[in-house]
């Protein structure tokens, strides 16, 4: 567990569990949000999160990261938020589940944005106070940060290397267009788009579509 930037804490497991993604905990004055919950939870993790103020909300970018949601929720009495389009992927009953669609400001300055693409309900978090007030996106697999930290990409299936159709790429870009963001954190510790993220999303999407069309 380590601070990624002020107000944002990363939570992972060593050795890694499954595909090795790490969670992100967004801290606010009205409670904390856990994003893309780590697949491993133990008493030490619970205690350290409790020291940070516990959890008010547990949510994820897409169903591949739903596996430990119920355990994290029960440990803190936190509400699970699921996009209505993907709610059927939560495989076990949970006491506190609420669905949403479109957008939802779940804590002050912390907004869930449904983008679609990888899954119908694939989402990102816009954190307005991140990057010293310039805004941050937490994207999981909805928007992939690529090595080099100066571009992003989109996939329908990562293991099978299947691309996202142009229509869906445009949908993701349109969903985040209303928001200001300087930085993007994906589903792993690295890479990170540290600056100029809005321009990078637009430019990367244009380049991606050109390749889909065979125009590059």
TrEMBL record:
Tell me the keywords, alphabetical order: Hydrolase
Q: Which SUPFAM superfamilies match?
A: Metallo-hydrolase/oxidoreductase
Q: Which domain of life is it from?
A: Bacteria
What residue intervals traverse the membrane?
Answer: none
Cross-referenced Pfam families, in alphabetical order? Lactamase_B
**InterPro entries from the UniProt entry:** Metallo-B-lactamas, RibonucZ/Hydroxyglut_hydro
Hydrolase keyword on record: yes
Residue limits of the Metallo-beta-lactamase domain? 20-188
Q: Recall the GO molecular function terms of this protein's record.
A: hydrolase activity
Query: Is Flavoprotein among this UniProt entry's keywords?
Result: no
Name the chain's protein: Glyoxylase-like metal-dependent hydrolase (Beta-lactamase superfamily II)
Native species of this protein? Thermocatellispora tengchongensis
């Amino acid at each position: 567990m380590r601070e990624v930037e002020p107000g944002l804490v990363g939570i992972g497991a060593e050795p890694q569990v499954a595909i090795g993604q790490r969670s992100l905990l967004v801290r606010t004055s009205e409670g904390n949000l856990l994003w893309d919950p780590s697949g491993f939870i133990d008493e030490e993790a619970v205690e350290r999160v409790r020291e940070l103020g516990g959890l008010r909300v547990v949510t994820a970018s897409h169903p591949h990261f739903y596996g430990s949601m119920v355990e994290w929720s029960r440990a803190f009495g936190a509400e699970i938020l699921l996009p209505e389009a993907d709610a059927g992927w939560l495989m076990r009953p949970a006491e506190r589940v609420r669905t949403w669609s479109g957008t939802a400001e779940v804590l002050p300055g912390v907004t869930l944005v449904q983008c679609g693409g990888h899954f119908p309900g694939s989402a990102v978090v816009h954190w307005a106070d991140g990057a010293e007030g310039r805004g941050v996106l937490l994207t999981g697999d909805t928007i992939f940060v690529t090595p080099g930290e100066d571009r992003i990409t989109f996939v329908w299936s990562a293991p099978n290397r299947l691309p996202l159709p142009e229509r869906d790429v445009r949908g993701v870009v349109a969903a985040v267009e209303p928001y200001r963001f300087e930085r993007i954190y994906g589903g792993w510790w690295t890479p990170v788009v540290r600056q100029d993220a809005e321009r990078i999303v637009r430019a990367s999407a244009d380049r991606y579509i050109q390749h889909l069309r065979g125009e590059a």
